Amino acid sequence: MDHDSTDHPKSPSKARRGSQSDLPPQDLTADVDPATSAAEEDDEGRLPEAPEESAEVIAEGPLAVGHAAIENAVRLAPTSPGVYRMLNAGSDVLYVGKAKNVRKRLASYARVNAPLPARILRMIAATVTVEIVSTTTETEALLLEANLIKQLRPRFNVQLRDDKSFPYILISGDHWAPQILKHRGAQTRPGRYFGPFASAGAVNRTITALQRAFLIRSCTDGFFESRTRPCLLYQIRRCSGPCTREIDFPGYSELVREANDFLSGRSHAVKELLAGEMEKASNELEFETAALYRDRLAALSAIQSQQGINPRTVEEADVFAIHQEGGYSCVEVFFFRTGQNWGNRAYFPRAEKSFTPEEVLASFLAQFYDDKPPPKLILLSHEIEESSLLADALCVKAGYKVEVSVPKRGEKKELVAHALTNAREALGRKLADTATQSRLLEGMATTLALPQVPKRIEVYDNSHIQGTNAVGAMIVAGPDGFIKNQYRKFNIKSEGLTPGDDYAMMREVLERRFKRLLKPPEGDSAKAKADDDSFPQWPDLVIIDGGRGQLNAVREIFEGLGLTQVALMAVAKGPDRDAGRETLFMPDREAIKLEPRDPVLYFIQRLRDEAHRFVIGSHRKLRKKDIREAGLQEIPGIGPSRKRALLHHFGTLKEIERASIADLGKVPGVSAESARKIFEFFHAQPG
Predict the structure, then answer these.
(1) What is the DSSP string of 213-262?
(2) Which of 24, 79, 98, 457 is the least buried, fewest Cβ under 10 Å from its Cβ?
(3) Going by DSSP bridges, is the β-strand pair 340-347/377-380 parallel, antiparallel, or unpaired?
């Protein structure tokens, strides 16, 4: 689906003198709108814990208390549509449900001898109060229910997890030479939006191929205006060079029109046009021009080959297929827009084993479209209850007719079968990965003589340059691998801290981390709760980068905080910092050295390297922010005159940062020694 925004193109203007760099400021493989860029994480989610169904008979007392609470709510409940929330003694929401007749639905829970699943009985036993919100229609109740489930994440509901926004391709409309880029978030910038795409990788690959096919620029407007000669993308035939008028306005507008046509589904017409131009150029013996059209045709073919299956009869649809195995569910989603496959993505919603595929899929769909525009057709692998109600709710939300169906024959049936195969394979891969991770954790527990297999591991590291821009970081790993939404960074705030004092920095990081856990809760809103999906807040093992000295320092910190249940380990690099020759230190034990090919050692190396990667990235962001705020005056030996000369030559501070020593030395008034100092200032390695 593509979207138009108001288009106010600027008239062509002469390019200003500026940067001499041969590369745009954006990565060649990821053209991202700076205003909406987001950290890209793994597109496949992690498996939730599969809660075990209780086989025990529920105690008569607690169940009676729950029945009494629900019976009390029944007397006050309306007979109109609405949403109800069941709460426990701690005011935590256990379950959110909707009903056409709230009183009738609650009454079904209040019947003492009703044959209900164990999951429902456990929910009733834990319930002490019920809250009700009335709605005008059942459609409103469905939309409100989905919104509340996503917000409150009740224990007994199906929960959609890893719900990131989807990326789009934007061809901008606020410049005379439109730009192609990846876009996330609110679609406020003028231009045409094409999407959604299933992942950032799918967008990046498509944009790269589109650049080869249509030669549309991907650089920022500021970079575009500062060019005096074409950049490297022009040299490698991924841009037509509008910045320096290598192509005129009508010619560039024609390229943009062709790109819009291709993304709008008129790919066959575009390919026929290019093939005709190639044939014409060949007949006129203009072989270089013919070769250019040939390469553009090949790029378009590459896009369509990457897309895999492209339906003939389905213009716009989302395809959902669910597969269950081993107590887990996987929902595979395929996106088809303008007759093209724009990617697929696997989700692993949290749901108890007693939920049927139909129940999981129904709840998943309502939450999935809570903050996304639906297509005109939604194809499902399983028949869900109230599919017509869901379609009506999506119609109200989108403002156009939405059809929800389970195809029985033809190409639509084949699309669903293909999605179902992918769901089965994705869940199989995820279960295999989880089993491998579990074996590594078990091996770590055995090797380190831990009292139990660690469920949550936290790894800490610091980074700074001669004490400046000091930052600490924590990464988290568990049975499903790295848990990136649990990562944290700590800007070092201690006053009077000696520059480069790693012990003091580690002390501040650990005290800030654990004092928060040790602090008693205050009020209902500050109740101590487990993290999402019952992932523990307290670590079973803390790993730090260092030797016996760092370990003893951290041990003193833990003793001062009264922490005795958390295992500690330090990882010291081997001689010459060789990987595979690390030494492990633990309190009151001899140093541990593992064989270089030991899987547990390799796992520990991965944990340490991930912490190092994360803290270095956090430090660089902080340092770049300071550099941009402070400007060039922080560089020793660079006064106002040289600063003006550098900015006049390169145009922006960003380009000065990217320049090589040789390029810096070409600036009038900048000596070789000054060029070296400038380069080292921007490229100093953090410690």
Answers:
(1) HH----S-HHHHHT-SS--HHHHTTS---GGGTSS-HHHHHHHHHHHHHH
(2) 79
(3) unpaired
- Residue 389 is encoded by which pair of tokens? 């109600």
pLDDT at position 267? 62
Length of the chain: 687
Rg (CA), the chain: 30
The β-bridge partners of 482 are: 477
Query: The tokens of 593 are what?
Result: 């050295």
CB 126 within 8 A of CB 88: yes
The mean pLDDT value for 68-77 works out to 89
Contacts 24+ apart (CB under 8 A), 568-571: 568/541, 568/542, 568/544, 569/448, 569/541, 569/542, 569/543, 569/544, 570/543, 570/544, 570/545, 570/546, 571/543, 571/544, 571/545, 571/546, 571/604, 571/608
Only one residue has tokens 């406020």, namely: 188
At 465, is the secondary structure helix, strand, or coil?
Answer: strand
Is there a contact between 36 and 183 (Cβ–Cβ < 8 Å)?
yes
Alpha-carbon dihedral of residues 380, 381, 386, 391, nearest 10 degrees? 0
Measure the CA–CA gap between 484 and 46, rounded to whole angstroms. Answer: 10
User: Distance between CA 239 and CA 308 in Å, rounded?
Assistant: 26
3-class secondary-structure state, position 100: coil
Give the residue among 379, 258, 398 at the shortest CA–CA distance from 317: 379
Which of 34-43, 147-156, 261-270, 648-657 is predicted most confidently?
147-156
Tokens, residue 504: 């003091």
Cβ-proximal residues to 644 (8 Å cutoff; 6+ apart), any chain = none
DSSP 90: T
Question: With contact defined as beta carbons under 8 Å apart, do 367 and 163 qualify?
Answer: yes
Residue found under tokens 């309306």: 78
Which tokens go with 663? Answer: 């390029």
* Of 372-376, 539-543, 643-647, 676-680, minimum mean pLDDT range: 643-647
- Classified as helix, coil or strand, 481 is strand
* Closest to 357 (Cα-Cα) out of 298, 295, 420: 420
Query: Which ranges constitute the DSSP H helices of 19-174?
Result: 60-76, 102-110, 118-126, 138-152
Residues 6+ apart with CB under 8 A from 377: 314, 316, 317, 318, 402, 403, 405
Q: What is the pLDDT of residue 576?
A: 59
**Model confidence pLDDT, tens digit, residues 427-475:** 888 887 777 888 889 988 998 888 889 999 999 887 755 545 677 888 9
Give residue-wise pLDDT tens across range 341-374: 788 889 899 888 888 999 999 999 988 888 788 8
Judge contact between 348 and 161, C-beta under 8 A.
yes
Residue 538 DSSP label: S
Of 222, 21, 26, residue with least CA distance to 655: 21
Q: Does pLDDT of 85 surpass 70?
A: yes
Q: Has residue 47 got a pLDDT over 80?
A: no
